[in-house]
Design a protein that fits this description.
Low-confidence stretches: none
Distance between the termini: 44 Å
Radius of gyration: 20 Å
Helix content: 25-40%
Strand content: 25-35%
Strand order of the largest sheet: 3-2-1-4-5
CATH topology of the largest domain: D-amino Acid Aminotransferase, Chain A, domain 1
Bound molecules: adenosine monophosphate, glycine
Largest sheet: 5 strands, parallel
Shape: globular
C-alpha cells in the first residue's frame, strides 16, 4: 500500500514511523514532511492550505491512502476532494471536521447526541456576552467559535479580560468552568464503528506547575495510572459512540480520528472540546505504545471496515517532553542551530519544527523537538525522556521539568 502523509510536525513524525513499521505499507510519502520524516520517507514541499496541490500530489503518486495530520486541510475540505478522485482518506469530510472548526457546531451535535459537556451560550453581541458572563461567573471560559490555532480559548477570573477576548471574536461560546483533571481520549472511526485508544494527558501551559500561557502542548504521557479503570469504556459509551451515531444520522459520517478532550469532574466525565485529528504531542506517546499495525488500521477506517478490530497495546509507559524555542508561544525565535541529537535506547526524538540549512539542523517553529521515552513504568519512561532532552542544545530553548511527575509519584504509591 502506498501512503501519503500530510503535515510537518512531531505528530506526523510519530505517525510516519508507525505507518512505515507496518509491512502493509510499501511506500510512504510525506508532504511537506520535515527533516526527521525525510530519514525514512520521500518528502514533497507543499503548502497544506492548498487543497488542489495536495490532491494533485496524491494523484501523481497514485497513493492508496492519504492520512491527514493537521486540522487546517480537513476543515478546508481536502478529504472530500481526495475521495472524489477515488483515494481512501483517513480524515473527516469538511462537514464532519466542523466538530473542530466550530465550537458552536460541536455543542449542537453534543446536545443532540446527549453527550455531557459544559453548559454554554453562543453569543454575537456585547449584550449577550455580558449576560452569559454574569450567569456563569468566574472563572470565565470564553472560546472563539472558529479555528484559532490554539489561541481561541481564554480561561480567566478577570471579567474585563474575558469580555475583551469575547469582543474580539465574531462569534463566541461562553461556558461553565469544568473543574477536574483533563484527559485526551482518541477514537478511530470508519463512520459507523469507533474504537477507543488508551487515554493520555497533555500539559497545555508553557511553564512548570501549569503556569504561563496556553500552548499547543508541552508534553504528554500515557497510560494514566490514576484514572478510573473504566475510563475507556465510559468514554466510549457516553461520548464516542453517541457522537459517531449522531454524525451518521445527520448524513455526515465521521471518518478519522475523533479527539475527545475530557474533564473528569465530580459530576462525571464532560467534554471540553473535540478535535478531528490526532493530538500533538499525545500522538508521540500513543503511537510508540500501539502494537496494532498502524497502516492497516487507518486503511480499514478509511474504507469503512473497522468492525471487529481491537487494539493491542504494549504493557509499557511513555512520556514525551517538548523542547520549545525561546519566546514560545508568544514570539518564538527561529533559526537557532540544534546540536547533535543523542541516541539513547528506548528514546525517540520527533521533529516538530525543524529545518535543514547547509546540512545543519535549525529550529523553525515554536515547538522544535518532542522527546519520547518509553519504559516499564512512567518513572523509567520519564528518566529516559529527560536524560535525552537534557543533552540537546538549542540556545534559549526551554522545556517543562514536571511532565508526568505527579503521575509517576502516584504510580509508585500504588
Ligand atoms: P481548547 O482549545 O478547547 O482545548 O481549550 C484550551 C484549554 O482551556 C483546555 O485544555 C482547558 O484547560 C481549558 N478549558 C477549555 N474549556 C474549559 C472549561 N469549560 N472549563 C475549564 N477549562 C477549560
Ligand atoms: N494536544 C492538543 C492538541 O493537539 O490540540
Amino acid at each position: 500500500m502506498k501512503i501519503l502523509l500530510v503535515g510537518s510536525g512531531g505528530r506526523e513524525h510519530a505517525l510516519g514511523l508507525g505507518l512505515q513499521a507496518d509491512p502493509e505499507c510499501t511506500e510512504l510519502f510525506a508532504a511537506p514532511g520535515n527533516p526527521g520524516i525525510a530519514e525514512f520517507a520521500q518528502c514533497y514541499p507543499l503548502d497544506i492550505s492548498d487543497n488542489a496541490a495536495i490532491v494533485a500530489l496524491a494523484e501523481k503518486l497514485d497513493v492508496d491512502l492519504a492520512v491527514i495530520g493537521p486540522e487546517l486541510p480537513l476543515v478546508n475540505g481536502v478529504a472530500d476532494l481526495l475521495r472524489a478522485v477515488g483515494i481512501a482518506v483517513f480524515g473527516p469530510s469538511k462537514a464532519a471536521a466542523q466538530l473542530e472548526g466550530s465550537k458552536n457546531f460541536a455543542k449542537e451535535v453534543m446536545a443532540d447526541a446527549g453527550v455531557p459537556t459544559a453548559r454554554s451560550f453562543t453569543c454575537s453581541t456585547q449584550d449577550q456576552i455580558e449576560k452569559a458572563l454574569d450567569i456563569f461567573d468566574a472563572p470565565y471560559v470564553v472560546k472563539d467559535d472558529g479555528l484559532a490555532a490554539g489561541k481561541g480559548v481564554v480561561v480567566t477570573r478577570d471579567r474585563d479580560e474575558a469580555l475583551a477576548h469575547a469582543l474580539k471574536c465574531k462569534r463566541v461560546v461562553i461556558e461553565e468552568f469544568l473543574d477536574g483533571p483533563e484527559v485526551s481520549l482518541f477514537g478511530i472511526s470508519d463512520g459507523k464503528t469507533i474504537i477507543a485508544m488508551q487515554p493520555a494527558q497533555d500539559f497545555k501551559r508553557a511553564f512548570e506547575n501549569d503556569k504561563g500561557p496556553n500552548t499547543g502542548g508541552m508534553g504528554a504521557y500515557s497510560p494514566l495510572p490514576w484514572a478510573p479503570s473504566d475510563i475507556i469504556e465510559d468514554t466510549y459509551t457516553k461520548v464516542l459512540a453517541p457522537m459517531i451515531t449522531e454524525m451518521a444520522a445527520r448524513g455526515t459520517p465521521f471518518v478519522g480520528l475523533l479527539y475527545a478532550g475530557l474533564a473528569l469532574t465530580n459530576h462525571g466525565t464532560k467534554v471540553i472540546e473535540f478535535n478531528t485529528r490526532f493530538g500533538d504531542p499525545e500522538t508521540q506517546v500513543l503511537i510508540p505504545l500501539l502494537k496494532t499495525p498502524l497502516a492497516s488500521l487507518l486503511y480499514r477506517a478509511a474504507t469503512r471496515n473497522l468492525e471487529g478490530v481491537t487494539l493491542d497495546w504494549r504493557e509499557e509507559s511513555a512520556v514525551t517532553v517538548v523542547l520549545a524555542s525561546q519566546g514560545y508561544p508568544d514570539a518564538p525565535q527561529t533559526g537557532g542551530e540544534i546540536g547533535q541529537l543523542p541516541e539513547i535506547e528506548n528514546v525517540s526524538i520527533y521533529h516538530s519544527g525543524t529545518a535543514r540549512r547547509d546540512e545543519k539542523l535549525i529550529a523553525q517553529g515554536g515547538r522544535t523537538l518532542t522527546v519520547t521515552g518509553t519504559g516499564l513504568d512512567l518513572t523509567e519512561a520519564r528518566d529516559r525522556a529527560y536524560r535525552a532532552i537534557s543533552q540537546i542544545s538549542l540556545e534559549g530553548s526551554f522545556y517543562r521539568s514536571d511532565i508526568a511527575l505527579n503521575a509517576s509519584v502516584a504510580e509508585k504509591g500504588n
